[in-house]
């Protein structure tokens, strides 16, 4: 057994105080996102974990890339026929989380996922490199395949088929918009007395702000 009990770190880089936060979580998320982007050194600041409740009843998490965020919520793209796509179709309650270790920060977002419009999905798909477009067509995401060679053969055939043709977005591929219901910001602090600020959505579209014990 590997004993990790001596893995310890003191968090001392920043603080999160009620006197210095906006009234809504999207503005704070935007601030943190760009601070990490500008000063944190994370190579993929938009990498986030998406947790769903699978069709087998078990939670499952995986890392995807956030592609857009605004007052409506957070958007990522995937194959709707994938394991996570089917899970969201069955149960749209999801959790997104970001861990920016260089800035000792974490954000946890509980929300409801729904398909983006076809116009939104088309627009993003058209912006992708051709290789990524063909990869979305070649891969039946989450399905069992006989080999790596099988996938590469599919891709090579698609490269020939679409050599001089516009590559259309598959109908089974598109975006999910996650509308946040609760957003928690975690800032590491010394002596494990971390700062935790939670925003909870209210019926009048305002946000209730609470400090949580670490």
Automatic annotation (TrEMBL):
Domain Pyridoxine 5'-phosphate oxidase dimerisation C-terminal span(s) in chain numbering: 173-214
Keyword vocabulary terms for this entry: Flavoprotein, FMN, Oxidoreductase, Pyridoxine biosynthesis
Residues annotated for substrate binding in this entry: 8-11, 67, 124, 128, 132, 192-194
Keyword Flavoprotein set for record: yes
InterPro entries from the UniProt entry: Pyridox_Oxase, Pyridox_Oxase_CS, Pyridox_Oxase_N, Pyridoxamine_oxidase_dimer_C, Split_barrel_FMN-bd
Cofactor binding, per record: Binds 1 FMN per subunit.
Sites where the protein binds FMN: 62-67, 77-78, 84, 106, 141-142, 186, 196
GO biological process per UniProt: pyridoxine biosynthetic process
Superkingdom field: Bacteria
Keyword Acetylation among UniProt keywords: no
Domain Pyridoxamine 5'-phosphate oxidase N-terminal intervals: 44-158
Pathway: Cofactor metabolism; pyridoxal 5'-phosphate salvage; pyridoxal 5'-phosphate from pyridoxine 5'-phosphate: step 1/1; Cofactor metabolism; pyridoxal 5'-phosphate salvage; pyridoxal 5'-phosphate from pyridoxamine 5'-phosphate: step 1/1
Catalytic activity: pyridoxamine 5'-phosphate + O2 + H2O = pyridoxal 5'-phosphate + H2O2 + NH4(+); pyridoxine 5'-phosphate + O2 = pyridoxal 5'-phosphate + H2O2
Enzyme Commission code: 1.4.3.5
GO molecular-function term, one example from the UniProt record: pyridoxamine phosphate oxidase activity
Co-factor requirement: FMN
HAMAP family, per the entry: PdxH
Family of the protein in this entry: Belongs to the pyridoxamine 5'-phosphate oxidase family.
Summary of subunit composition and partner proteins: Homodimer.
Role played: Catalyzes the oxidation of either pyridoxine 5'-phosphate (PNP) or pyridoxamine 5'-phosphate (PMP) into pyridoxal 5'-phosphate (PLP).
Protein name in the entry: Pyridoxine/pyridoxamine 5'-phosphate oxidase
Species this chain originates from: Flavobacterium xueshanense
């Amino acid at each position: 057994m590997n004993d990790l009990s001596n893995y310890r770190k003191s968090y001392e880089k920043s603080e999160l105080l009620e006197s210095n936060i906006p009234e809504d979580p999207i503005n704070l998320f935007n601030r943190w996102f760009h601070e990490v982007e500008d000063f944190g050194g994370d190579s993929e600041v938009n990498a986030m974990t998406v947790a769903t409740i699978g069709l087998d009843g078990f939670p499952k998490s995986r890392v995807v890339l956030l592609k857009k965020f605004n007052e409506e919520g957070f958007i990522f793209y995937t194959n709707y026929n994938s394991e996570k796509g089917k899970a969201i179709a069955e149960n749209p309650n999801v959790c997104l989380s970001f861990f920016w270790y260089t800035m000792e920060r974490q954000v946890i977002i509980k929300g409801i996922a729904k398909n983006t419009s076809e116009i939104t999905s088309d627009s993003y798909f058209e912006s992708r490199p051709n290789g990524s477009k063909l990869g979305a067509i070649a891969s039946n995401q989450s399905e069992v395949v006989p080999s790596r060679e099988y996938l590469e053969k599919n891709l090579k055939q698609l490269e020939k088929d679409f050599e001089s043709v516009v590559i259309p977005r598959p109908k089974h591929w598109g975006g999910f918009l996650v509308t946040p219901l609760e957003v928690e910001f975690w800032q590491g602090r010394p002596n494990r007395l971390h700062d935790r600020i939670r925003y909870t959505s209210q019926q009048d579209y305002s946000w209730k702000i609470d400090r949580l014990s670490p």
